């Protein structure tokens, strides 16, 4: 059930036929894990909390640094030195006291990551490095949990959704298993703030669609965003039958 306060708080999205009361209830009953509360994780956590996703799990072992504030808009100057997860939770509680927030302040190893993924319905990868992305993907494939993956570096952004519940869906490793410049991070290569905001907002949008059950998710499609020209391209991406992570999966 939704309280009168909740009906008011979420009224502008409940007005949408695609969401309605049923979709809002599905959001309330949903649990999502946000891996990384930085540039991508900031808009993701802010929008999912504001939209009423019932349980938001936040994972980040880092503390807020002054160099983060140019793009990590969930944190503020008073939060410098605090654990990112604690800084984020303070802000999210102020935005929406109706939801439950769960903190993972330690780095997740294979077992704790598997447990963290098993506890939720959907995962958003907002991390900044290839090793974490591969580990999160493997855990999502094993648990058959949908993964909304975003990345932004310099002036380029990428977005896709991997849904191991679907036989036709590739996984992160199908696409990126061969490397490329994935090891570069924003702290080394630089990035512009609104671009991570854009990619993170699109991640939040895809998550709300999957959790509330409307629209067409970005599965089997890779969205490429060029901030220099404000152009977006879409590539079809196929599942790799020989993929070391999802290749032996049986439908
Ligand atoms: Zn794969």
TrEMBL record:
Its EC number is 2.7.7.80. It is an enzyme of class 2 (transferase). It catalyses: [molybdopterin-synthase sulfur-carrier protein]-C-terminal Gly-Gly + ATP + H(+) = [molybdopterin-synthase sulfur-carrier protein]-C-terminal Gly-Gly-AMP + diphosphate. One of its GO terms (cellular component) is cytosol. Keywords: ATP-binding, Nucleotide-binding, Nucleotidyltransferase, Transferase. Pathway: Cofactor biosynthesis; molybdopterin biosynthesis. Pfam families: ThiF. Residues 10-244 form the THIF-type NAD/FAD binding fold domain. GO terms for molecular function: ATP binding; molybdopterin-synthase adenylyltransferase activity; sulfotransferase activity; thiosulfate-cyanide sulfurtransferase activity; ubiquitin-like modifier activating enzyme activity. Homodimer. Forms a stable heterotetrameric complex of 2 MoeB and 2 MoaD during adenylation of MoaD. Catalyzes the adenylation by ATP of the carboxyl group of the C-terminal glycine of sulfur carrier protein MoaD. Belongs to the HesA/MoeB/ThiF family. This is Molybdopterin-synthase adenylyltransferase. It comes from Pseudomonas reidholzensis. The lineage of its organism: Bacteria, Pseudomonadati, Pseudomonadota, Gammaproteobacteria, Pseudomonadales.
């Amino acid at each position: 059930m939704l309280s009168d306060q909740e009906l008011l708080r979420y009224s502008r999205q409940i007005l949408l036929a695609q969401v309605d009361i049923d979709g809002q209830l599905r959001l309330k009953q949903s649990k999502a894990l946000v891996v990384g509360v930085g540039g991508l994780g900031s808009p993701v956590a802010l929008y999912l909390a504001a939209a009423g996703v019932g349980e938001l799990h936040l994972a980040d072992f880092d503390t807020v640094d002054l160099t983060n504030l140019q793009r990590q808009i969930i944190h503020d100057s008073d939060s410098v030195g605090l654990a990112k997860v604690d800084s984020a939770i303070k802000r999210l509680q102020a935005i929406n006291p109706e939801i439950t927030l769960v903190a993972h302040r330690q780095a997740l190893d294979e077992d704790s990551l598997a447990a963290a993924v098993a506890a939720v319905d959907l995962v958003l990868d907002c991390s900044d490095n290839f090793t974490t992305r591969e580990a999160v993907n493997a855990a999502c494939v094993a648990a058959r949990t949908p993964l909304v993956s975003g990345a932004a570096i310099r002036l380029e952004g990428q977005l896709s959704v991997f849904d191991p519940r679907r036989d036709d869906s590739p996984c992160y490793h199908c696409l990126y298993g061969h490397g490329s410049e994935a090891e570069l991070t924003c702290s080394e290569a630089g990035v512009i703030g609104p671009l991570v905001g854009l990619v993170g907002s699109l991640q939040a949008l895809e998550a709300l669609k999957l959790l509330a059950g409307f629209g067409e998710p970005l599965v089997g499609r890779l969205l490429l965003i060029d901030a220099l020209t404000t152009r977006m391209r879409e590539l079809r991406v196929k599942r790799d039958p020989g993929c070391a992570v999802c290749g032996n999966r049986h439908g």
